[in-house]
Backbone:
């Protein structure tokens, strides 16, 4: 069922899964100002929608996202880069990392520049054969942004992050799995089916526990062990009071699958 459609970002909701599709295939889904606005609105809307339990982010056509629309940067009224990044890119990354629902990046083709950053901001990534990820910022004389310098070292380690960021080479799909950036490579025509199957699995989970798990993983990146242990105890206290925990225990005892409601 189409939930919301805008010229450059499509949102479809079915079976508790929202699929957000970057939809400027002729420009390899390069990000324009209106598109960034629409993408932020899409993440905020699925965040509020209680019927949505998992999200897929993907691209229309042969690319995932080629990053900033470079042609738009040449327009005389283009905002200074610092403003563009602070006001338009950063809120998207914050909305994605703060979204209390898991996001699967279905990386259907090239993810370059800020498109790579969007891929990194997803919780899990599935990549199609032939897809690549490149921090292409250096090629246009720019610095990796939209969270890439923060996310990448945490995901692959400092040394590999330096290699990816400084050399800017396109990492092929198999390499993305090898360095731990993607769950697996799938044939291009199976990508959306695989992403939907993974999203369905997540959507059948306990929504509050998944949200708190994401919250704990986000927080752990900035904390030492003592603080992480304490935060886990706090979140477990919250999860332990949920109806879903009671349902999980009941289902275990009855040897049946749990039916989680998010309560
Ligand atoms: O606000 C700010 O600027 C700050 C934020 C910056 C963040 C960034 O994202 S900087 C990095 C921006 N992205 C890039 O540098 C990647 C640019 N694109 C490419 O290098 C190549 O297009 C690809 C390697 C991704 C794919 O190459 P290929 O040969 O498969 O396709 P193509 O022929 O280059 O592209 C197809 C069309 O998409 C083409 O349109 P045309 O000429 O046929 O009308 C091309 O111009 C367009 N396209 C691709 N990338 C962009 C783009 N149009 C605008 N912006 C793009 N980024």
Residues:
């Amino acid at each position: 069922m189409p939930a919301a459609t805008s010229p450059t970002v499509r949102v479809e909701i079915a079976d508790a899964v929202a699929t957000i599709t970057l939809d400027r295939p002729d420009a390899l889904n390069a990000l324009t100002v209106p598109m960034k606005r629409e993408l932020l609105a899409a993440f905020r809307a699925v965040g509020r929608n209680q019927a949505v339990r998992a999200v897929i982010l993907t691209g229309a056509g042969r690319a995932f996202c080629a990053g900033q629309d470079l042609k738009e940067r040449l327009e005389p009224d283009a905002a200074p880069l610092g403003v563009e990044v602070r006001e338009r890119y950063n809120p998207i990354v914050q909305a994605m990392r703060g979204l209390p629902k898991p996001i699967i990046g279905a990386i259907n083709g090239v993810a370059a520049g800020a498109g790579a950053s969007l891929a990194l901001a997803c919780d899990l990534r599935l990549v199609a054969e032939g897809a690549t990820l490149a921090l292409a910022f250096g090629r246009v004389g720019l610095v990796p942004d939209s969270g890439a310098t923060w996310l990448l070292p945490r995901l692959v380690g400092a040394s590999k992050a330096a290699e990816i960021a400084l050399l800017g080479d396109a990492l092929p799909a198999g390499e993305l799995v090898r360095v731990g950036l993607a769950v697996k490579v799938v044939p291009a025509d199976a990508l959306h089916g695989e992403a939907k199957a993974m999203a369905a699995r997540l959507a059948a989970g306990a929504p509050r526990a998944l949200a708190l798990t994401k919250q704990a993983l986000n927080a752990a990146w900035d904390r030492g062990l003592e603080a992480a242990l304490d935060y886990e105890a706090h979140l477990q206290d919250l999860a332990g009071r949920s109806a879903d925990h009671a349902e999980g225990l009941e289902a275990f005892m009855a040897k049946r699958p749990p039916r989680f409601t998010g309560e």
About this structure: The longest helix spans residues 81-98. Residues 27-28, 30, 66-71, 73, 81, 84-85, 110, 112-114, 136-137, 139-140, 142, 145 surround T3D (CB under 6 Å). The CA atoms of residues 29 and 126 lie 18 Å apart. The two ends are 25 Å apart (CA to CA).
